[in-house]
Write a structure and sequence with these properties.
The protein is of the alpha/beta class. It has two domains: 5-210, Spore Coat Polysaccharide Biosynthesis Protein SpsA, Chain A (Alpha-Beta Complex); 214-309, no CATH class. Helix content is 46%, strand content 18%. α7 runs parallel beside α8 (215-235) and α9 (240-259) runs antiparallel to α10 (265-278). The longest helix is centred in the C-terminal third of the chain and has 24 residues, at 286-309. The chain is globular and about 70 Å long.
Length: 310
């Protein structure tokens, strides 16, 4: 009646900031059958020392002898989880004490591939930026992805509990550049094995400097976005044309938003063009360029002019 659930925390050099908090979130779960698997990806900080301070018998700490890469560490956790269900709690994210129990309750013994809750976005200090309740309950796979393309729901691994066998059958976490590998896994599992949904926000995705982009990574993000769209269309061939058209618009806008993290102006302008070309100009880059590049600069010029004349 209460399947074993693995909370897997893949970590690298986060002992001084976020790892302890992620562990406390896992240990605070109200669900009664937990394994907490911490995979230390050969950290060079005091992760091992921090882990010695946690003596709960539910914790299984593994220190890798060589760095597997971030995605290799994710897949190590998937391959070595003992639980019938697995939650990948990245070492900078958070879950509420009733995250697992809420997910297991809504599944109610159904053999679904994944269970999702709503998601909060928080900053590096834990300040709430946004809340997105989960409106996915009862949606067919095509309707689910259309809702995502229309910004009616989100895809975050922090708010997703997978059935371990389903995630393994889907091949774990993989994409060309291992940037959209979590969404790729969610898509494959959801279409093949179904989903259950908790509407309330029970998990928090942390936005901070370490998950910001660069000009070089914009091209990789576009490539992974297109691969994800290809996968969705392959899984749902009867809806492929409509999903591809809607998905191009949504993913182009998503990648325009990532361009804001590129440091230099010329790099940003080149990145806007790269995104536009990648998605066949499904959405013009001009509104984003005006809103983020030209309008702020024009405001500064006008402000200086008003100060001079006053």
């Amino acid at each position: 009646m209460h399947p074993l659930v693995t909370i897997a925390i893949p970590t690298y050099n986060r002992a001084d900031r976020f790892l302890g908090n992620a562990l406390r979130c896992a240990l605070a779960q109200t669900y009664d059958r937990l394994e907490i698997l911490v995979s230390d990806n050969c950290s060079t900080d005091n992760t091992a020392q921090l882990m010695r301070g946690f003596t709960d018998p539910r914790i299984r700490y593994v220190r890798q002898t060589s760095n597997l890469g971030a995605n290799g560490n994710f897949n190590y956790c998937i391959d070595n989880a003992a639980g019938e269900y697995i939650h990948l709690l990245l070492d900078d994210d958070e879950i509420d004490p009733d995250f697992v129990s809420s997910c297991m309750a809504v599944a109610a013994g159904r053999d679904v591939g994944l269970i999702r809750s709503g998601t909060r976005l928080i900053d590096g200090d834990g300040k709430l930026l946004m809340e997105r309740p989960n409106s996915g309950a009862g949606l067919s796979p095509p309707a689910f992805f259309r809702a995502w393309f229309q910004n009616q729901l989100t895809l975050y691994v922090c708010s997703t509990l997978f059935r371990t066998a389903s995630l393994r059958a889907a091949g774990g976490f993989h994409s060309r550049h291992n940037l959209f590998q979590d969404a790729m896994a969610i898509a494959r599992v959801l279409v093949r094995d179904g989903h259950a949904d908790v509407r309330e926000c029970k998990a928090s995705f942390r936005m901070h400097e370490a998950n910001m982009g660069s000009a070089m990574r914009i091209s990789a993000w576009c490539d992974d976005s297109l691969q994800l769209l290809d996968v969705i269309c392959q899984l749902l061939p009867e809806q492929a044309a409509a999903l591809r058209a809607e998905g191009k618009v949504f993913l182009a806008r998503m990648n325009y938003n990532r361009v804001a993290n590129v440091a230099d102006l010329l790099g940003r302008l080149a990145s806007y063009l790269r995104v536009a070309r990648s998605f066949d100009f499904a959405v013009s880059p001009l509104p984003s360029i005006w809103r983020r590049e030209l309008r702020p600069g024009l405001r500064k010029v006008l402000r200086k002019m008003l100060l001079r004349t006053s």
